[in-house]
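Escalation from tier 1.

The customer reports that the assembly of two entities below gives different C-alpha cells on two consecutive runs. Tier 1 could not reproduce it. I'm attaching the input and our single run for tier 2 to review.
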Amino acid sequence: MRGIITIALRELRGMFYSPLAWTLLAVLFAICAYMFNAGLLNYQIQMLEYQAYGMKGSLPLTERTIAPMLGNAAVLLLLLMPLLSMRLIAEEKRQGTWPALACSPLSPMAILLGKYLGLLMFLAITCILLAIPPLTLYAYGNPDTGQFLAGLLGLFLTAASFGAVGLAASSATDNPNVAAVASFGVLLMLWIISWMGNSSGGVMDQTLSYFSLMTHYQNFLTGMISSSDLLYFILLSSAGLLFARQRLLAERIQG
Amino acid sequence: MTETMIHISGVTRLFGSVKALDNIDLQVHRGEVMGFLGPNGAGKTTTMRILSGLLAPSEGSIAVAGIDILENPVEARARIGFLPENPPIYGEMTVREYLTYLATLRRVAANQLTTAVDRAMERCGLTAVANRLLRNLSKGYKQRAGIAQAIVHGPDVVILDEPTVGLDPIQIREIRQLIRELGGEHSVLLSTHILPEVRMTCQRVAVIHQGRIVADDSIDGLENRARGKSSHFLRWSQPPSLELLKKIPGVANVTPKEEGWLITALPETDPLPELVRLSVSSGWNLRELSPAGGSLEDIFLQLTTREERPHEGEELSA
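Tier 1 run:
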C-alpha cells in the first residue's frame, strides 16, 4: 500500500514537473470557461425570448449552462487524456527506468494501481478546476446543486475510465506515441459506438448503447446517478487495469 | 561463509526458437563478489534479467537468499538490488529524491530512510551532488546513482550489469574499489567483458559462452588449470624445422606464434630439458623461453573460442 501511494505521488509530481500537465489544464480551463460563457449568453437570449411570449417561470438553468459545459469537457478530455496517460508505463520503458520499478518488491498490479492513482489525483484537480466557472452561477442564480455534482462525478468517472484505457495502451508498448494513438482510437470508438444502433430499441441497439461511454455519461449530466452507470465505469476501469497487468506479466515470459 | 545467496539451477531461456541460455547452473555465496564473464551476446544480460525478475526463465529454478523467485517473486525482489546496463535514472529528480523514492518502494522503514539514503550516497561518492538534478550529472555520476539505487535498501544480493562501461579511467578505478567494498556485506554478481576488472574485483569467476557456463572457479583455480597444461613459448634465432620439434619426446603440439613457437607438452611429461639441450648442441640460438597460457585472457580465449556447439549457436541478443 505504501508502495502504491509512493508511486502515485511521484507520478502526480512528475506530471507537474513537465509542462504537459500545466498546458493541458490551461487549455482545458480556457476552452471550458469560454464554452460556459457562450452557454450563459445563449441562455440569457433564450430567457428573453421565453419571457417575451409571456411565459412564466424560467428555463432550467443547470441543464442549459453547466451540463453542456461538462459534456464538452468530457469530449476535450477524450482528446487530451491519451496524451497524459501515454507516458505512464511506456515512458518508463523508453527511458530505461522500468527495471528500477519492476525489480522493486511490488506486484505488477501494485505498480499499475500506483500509476493509476496518480492519474486519478490529477483528474480530481482537473474536476475541481472545472467546477469554478459553474460555481460563479451561485452568485446570480439558483443552479441545481445535485445535478451539478452528479455531472461533476460523471466527468470524473468518465475521465477515470479514459485513463484506465490509456494505462492499458501504455503498458502494451514502449512507444508513448503509439500508446496515445491506440487509446484515443479505443476511446473514440467507445464514445460513438451507439451511432451504429438504429434507434429501434432492439437488442442490438440496447447493447451498443450500453457499451457507449456517452450514454452513461449523459445520465450523470441529467442529474441521475444509477448503479448501472457506476458499474459500467468501474468495469471499464477494471478491464483497463487487468489488461495492463496481463501485458506486464506476459512481458516477463515473452521478453 | 558458505551460505548460498544466489542459486540458479537448470535455467534455460528461449527467445522464440533461439536458446539464449542453456541449462545454466550458478551459485554465489554470501559476501562473495562473483565475476560473470563472457563475450558480447553470450547470455550475461539475459541471466541477470532473469535473476532480477524482469524475465521469466523457460525452465529451471532460481532462489535468492533461499527464496524461490518464481514462487515468491515479490519477497525475492526485496532481497535484490539490480543495476541494468543503462542506469535507470529519473532525470527530473535530484539524487536524494531519487534514492528516497526507490528506497521507499523497496520497503526501507520511514524512520530509516534518511540514514539509508545518506549511507548509499556516501558509499557511492554522491554526497556532494545530493541536491542536483540527475539529468544534469555526468555519465560517471549517473552510473554511481545507478549503483546507489541497487544498494540503498541493503539487499542481500547485488547484480551489476557492466557497471564500468563508458566511464573514464579514474571513475572506473573508483567504481571497482566500490564493488570490492560491496562484497562482504552483499553478495555481488558482476557482469563484464573486461578481464582486468574481474581480477581486481572478484574472488570467483563464471564464464558463459553461447548460453552455457563453461567455467566456474576461483581466479587462481582457473589460472592454475590453464598452467597445468604446461605450454611454453620458445624463440630461436636459428629455428629448427617444425617436424624436428614435433619428434622430440613429450611434445604434444607445436604452433607458430609471433616469430616463435608455442609448445605444449603431453600430460605428465616435461620436454623442456631436452629442448634446451638440443638448442645448445644444435646451435639453434635460444633467445626466449617463457611459460605461456596462464593468463586470464588466455583462459578466456580458450574457453570462448573452442569448437562451436553441435547445434546452432548464432550470436544472441542478450
